[in-house]
Design brief:
The protein has helices at residues 2-17, 30-36, 65-79, 108-111, 247-260, 277-283, 301-305, 326-332, 363-370, 395-401, 420-423, 443-455; strands spanning 40-50, 86-99, 103-106, 116-120, 126-135, 140-145, 167-172, 180-191, 201-204, 216-218, 224-231, 242-246, 266-267, 270-274, 291-296, 312-316, 319-320, 339-346, 349-356, 358-359, 383-385, 388-392, 410-415, 431-435, 438-439, 460-467, 470-477. The chain is α+β, with helices and mostly antiparallel strands. The termini are far apart.
């Protein structure tokens, strides 16, 4: 009986520990907080703002004593030294030291457009900070302070191994109160807030408030696994939904900022879209996976390697691409000039291309590279297919529609409002460039390929639509007129 009791007790301990004998709830975070707090800093910024940036004088009823007071105040401001009056705006945030030499990580939005930045250490010492570099796309910035003494610092951890349910500690400067420690768990991973192309946030219920931005999110080993960046809050205070940039992404960006003051990102030269179930069925894929190439930038790395619109990228540099969202992140984190293997699916066949990555152009340069033609409505000769009326791209048609002289395909001149094309938001003036991964030379090609697909019992027919240079694949029901 005694032996049976022992076995039962042991089983209870194992069940309580859970899979992998995970850690239980800590008795206290005090030792860990005491160890980490010296490396966490408060950040204060200030900015001179011109009168044009100041609020207008409030409106008061005639005879109000407040009106006279405010008029006198604003007039004094305008007359002071004959200059446009200014005021100094201040803001607060958090950061953390990553090197004894005085390198400090924070959010870009904490220090953006600041005229003066100060870092306040744990002992209330104030140090003037200079910006080493910043990256608006990931909302990260690296500062440098000079100190006569060696500064305490913390290190990045492996955010890829963090699991939902793991304990985390947030330390920062909420509402300007100074060092504050909060605890919680990782609530979710890979959150997309649509804040940028590289969104991959960790979500936590550790209370994070205004002023925590730029502060570290620690695991129980005392490693930084995230940088607290944003909260979801209808009230402005913590409601248990905070977001942190994962250390994997941050460490890569901060390393480049420290080395050169800017971030170089790999560039493939494609525009992509998600593969949904309809498109997967239309392309003969077993499941909706990968990133569908909607267009290829002329002269870019992908075009030079032989990748074309309609290819589905399923692997990049040995990394599987299960969703569209993953491709921009892994490409951006790959070194410029590196030769990588890109695996694609084209008409049911897996192919591998060797691609040498370029450097991501600046936003204005990229927009110029991807700029498409303007489209104006008109009506050339008609071919009917999938509820669309299509015309050939003759020289006259190109001129009428304002299309690029090198444009290819068939132009949509009308859409049946009850058709599958209308349901997919295809509109007059759109250009049909590709049907079932086959290029379109004349309008009759569309009708022919559609008829062949229907004869082969296809349930979905995938077309590549170009609207003023914005290309997307659309899966249409084959049995809908």
């Amino acid at each position: 009986m005694r032996r049976l009791s022992g076995l039962i007790a042991g089983l209870i301990v194992l069940l309580a520990a859970g899979p992998g004998l995970a850690r239980g709830t800590p008795e206290s975070f005090a030792d860990l907080a005491e160890q980490l707090m010296p490396a966490v800093v408060n950040i204060t910024t200030s900015q001179l703002m011109q009168q044009s940036d100041m609020p207008e004088m409030p409106q008061f009823p005639e005879g109000s004593p407040f009106k006279e007071f405010f008029e006198e105040f604003f007039n004094q401001q305008r007359q002071r030294n004959g200059e446009e009056p200014t005021r100094r705006a201040t803001s607060l945030g958090s950061g953390f030291i990553i090197d004894a030499a005085g390198y400090v990580v924070t959010n870009n939005h904490v220090i953006a457009e600041a005229d003066e930045i100060k870092v306040v250490l744990n002992d209330d010492t104030e140090l003037k900070a200079e910006v080493v570099g910043r990256d608006p796309k990931t909302d990260l910035a690296l500062l440098k302070v000079e100190s006569e003494k060696s500064l305490p610092f913390v290190s990045f951890g492996d955010s890829d191994t963090v699991r939902v349910g793991d304990w985390v500690l947030a330390i920062g400067n909420p509402f300007g109160f100074g060092k504050t420690v909060t605890a919680g768990i990782i609530s979710a991973r890979s959150r997309d807030l649509e804040a940028g192309p590289y969104d991959d946030f960790l979500q936590t219920d550790a209370p994070i408030n205004r002023g925590n931005s730029g502060g570290p999110l620690f695991n129980l080993d005392g490693k930084v696994i995230g940088i607290n960046t944003a909260i979801f809050s209808p009230s402005g205070g913590s409601v248990g939904i905070g977001f942190a940039t994962p250390a994997r992404l941050a460490e890569h960006v901060i390393g480049q900022l420290r080395q050169s003051g800017r971030v170089q990102r790999g560039w493939l030269g494609v525009r992509i879209q998600s593969v949904d179930e309809d498109i997967a069925e239309g392309f003969g894929l077993s499941e909706p996976t990968g990133a569908l190439v909607a267009s290829v930038t002329a002269g870019g790395p992908a075009e030079q390697a032989g990748i074309v619109a309609g290819d589905v990228i399923v692997s990049f540099d040995g990394k599987p691409i299960p969703t569209m969202r993953m491709l921009p992140r892994v490409v951006a984190e790959t070194d410029v000039g590196k030769a990588v293997k890109v695996e694609i699916v084209r008409q049911g066949e897996r192919l591998t291309f060797d691609v040498t990555l370029g450097e991501m152009p600046a936003d204005d340069e990229l927009a110029a590279l991807e700029a498409g033609p303007e489209v104006a409505p008109s009506a050339p000769q008609a071919v009917e297919a999938l509820g669309m009326t299509l015309g050939d791209l003759t020289e006259e048609a190109k001129a009428q529609y304002g299309l690029d002289p090198g444009a290819t395909g068939a132009v949509v001149t009308a859409v049946d409002p009850n058709s599958a094309a209308a349901a997919a938001a295809i509109a007059e003036g759109d250009l049909i460039m590709d049907v079932q991964q086959r290029r379109i030379a004349v309008a009759a090609d569309v009708a022919r390929i559609v008829d062949e697909a229907k004869a082969g019992a296809a349930k979905k027919i995938v077309v590549l639509v170009d609207r003023a240079g914005d290309r997307r694949f659309v899966a249409l029901d084959a049995d809908v007129p």
